[in-house]
Amino acid sequence: MLPVVALVGRPNVGKSTLFNALTRSRDALVADLPGVTRDRHYGVCRLGARPFVAVDTGGLSGVDEGLDALTAQQVRLAIGEAQALVFVVDAREGLLPQDRGILDELRRSGKPIVLAVNKTDGLDVQGALAEFSRFGIAATLPLSAAHNRGTDDLVGALLPLL
Ligand code: GDP
Ligand code: MG
């Protein structure tokens, strides 16, 4: 069985775009509407020395009812089956209270976390990273999933955890 990496974060931060970059597919549904991926979505990443399974998730909105609750349940299943977690945040929106709540949940899983600060294209990268440094995650990496920048470094940070 290949190791599993779950991509987790708020809706619209770029999880599906990252999934596509990692798996080099267009399978994951990328949309400008937040929260379009409602179930889990699997693909194999072969960018590094060893392949792993990436799981795209629907996003944790913090609203724990209705469809959002079902999505959150799916995300928790993905976290449960993963060896490592990629916590994706949006450098343009910055650190939101929801991100803190999601991180608390990820930490409760006890799984290793890599923080991917996405949408850094056109931004001051150091400034974008500085805001998220307060999370205290050693592996914090800048990313532009849409421009396929930072994906190799992300894979490089993940492989030792798998
Ligand atoms: P998800 O809801 O977390 O799966 O987010 P999506 O992958 O569907 O992306 C949400 C929106 O953010 C889409 O309009 C993407 O084109 C855009 N997006 C994703 N990654 C990047 C990035 O690296 N830079 C920029 N500028 N936009 C991005
Ligand atoms: Mg998505």
TrEMBL record:
Gene Ontology molecular function terms on file: GTP binding; ribosome binding
Transmembrane segments annotated in the record for this chain: none
Highest rank taxon of the organism: Bacteria
GO terms classed as biological process: ribosome biogenesis
Binding site for GTP 1: 9-16, 56-60, 118-121
Domain EngA-type G, first and last residues per copy: 3-162
Keywords: GTP-binding, Nucleotide-binding, Repeat, Ribosome biogenesis
Subunit structure: Associates with the 50S ribosomal subunit.
Function (record text): GTPase that plays an essential role in the late steps of ribosome biogenesis.
The family this protein is said to belong to: Belongs to the TRAFAC class TrmE-Era-EngA-EngB-Septin-like GTPase superfamily. EngA (Der) GTPase family.
Name of the molecule in the record: GTPase Der
Gene: der
Parent sequence residues shown: 1 to 162 of 466
